[in-house]
Amino acid sequence: MCYFIANRCLNKAAIKSPEDELNPDGSPADRWTLCTLQQVEETKCVVRVLPIWAAAIVFHLAIIHQQQYAVFQALQSDRHLGNSKFQIPAASYTIFSMLSLSLFVPVYDRLIVPRLRKLTGKEEGITLLQRIGIGVCLGVVISLVSGFVEERRRTLALTKPVIHSKKGAVSPMSALFLVPQISIAGLADAFAAIGQVEFYYKQLPENMRSFAGALLFCNGAASSYVNSLLIAVVHKTTEGAATGNWLPEDLNKGRLDYFYFLVAALGSLNVCYFLVISKWYRYKGTEVESYNGQTEMKNLDKHVA
Q1: Where are the transmembrane segments (predicted)?
Q2: At what angle do helices 37-75 and 209-238 cross, to 10 degrees?
Q3: pLDDT digit string, tens, across residues 31-61
Q4: Do 121 and 113 contact (CB within 8 A), yes or no?
Q5: Which residues contact 60 (CB under 8 A, 6 or more apart)?
Q6: Of 18, 87, 152, 219, which is the most exposed, with the fewest CB atoms less than 10 Å away?
């Protein structure tokens, strides 16, 4: 319903009124008051994908935290490789996200998609929105796993610390326990991020391919701003709380696990939002969209200059 209402509103931009002036070549003198049908249709495509784009902002929060707080967790965990004296650099653990992404993509394309294609009869195995939706759901799983792992790490650090560093006590828990949450982040990207790129390229007009490619990067930028705002709100809200600041420099004095659970709650709400807009969305070229588009265009032909 909202889509059809937006359709009618945008269509009015191509209807010539008595006040509108035209250039000798027939183009509008003022492009802000009168638009071409092509401009209207391109705007419709952008408006149609924006709700999907917005859903990915909250999803990327979980990914950002694996590149941010997982490093801090590793710094206050046992990073020794087995019984050796060698310590794995804390920032190196994020490579498991890239490894899981790189390994899963060919497995998905070569093994999983052909089997899904036989079951669903779809060329892609599952629809693009279903692929993005799986990634959005995995975003919640990432935060939940991260919260439980952090709770365990913090408990051991406070009860059985290995050493005391400048940044706080180091937990005897192996930093390898962080690998599952980081690896899931790579799997989530394989579904959501790659699905988004394909979705934007297929749902936007061909002459807007560069814009489609930029949408994913704009999504990451928006997520970073939202993440900064969320952290600032958590700092200010928990500063005077009984539990203390959730995100201090020494993680053992904070409650990073609560923060992860908060992000998981936001992600759960985002999943519900994504399910609603996915049910509403109509792919470009579908019968429903084509029928309504033709009906609107026929009505426009009667009014357009």
Answers
A1: 46-66, 86-108, 128-149, 169-194, 214-238, 258-276
A2: 40
A3: 556 666 667 777 777 888 889 999 999 999 9
A4: no
A5: 139, 219, 220, 223
A6: 18
CA angle in degrees (0–180, nearest 5) for 67-72-75:
125
Residues ≥6 apart with Cβ < 8 Å to 132: 52, 55, 56, 191, 192, 195, 196, 199, 274
Mean pLDDT lowest for which of 10-14, 106-110, 126-130, 131-135?
Answer: 10-14
**E-strand stretches of 162-218:** 164-165, 168-169
The CA distance from 232 to 247, in Å, is 10
Contact 142, 185 (CB under 8 A): yes
- Position 13 scores a pLDDT of 57
Q: How is residue 22 annotated by DSSP?
A: B
pLDDT at 22 over 90: no
Q: Looking at residues 216-220, what average pLDDT do you find?
A: 88
Contacts of 262 (CB under 8 A, 6+ apart): 234
**CA 234 to the chain's CA centroid:** 21
**Residue 271 structure tokens:** 């999943």
Interacting residues of 6 by C-beta distance below 8 A, sequence separation 6+: 44, 47
Q: Are strands 164-165 and 168-169 parallel, antiparallel or unpaired?
A: antiparallel
**Residue that has been written with the tokens 């600032």 in this structure:** 232
Structure tokens at 249: 């420099």
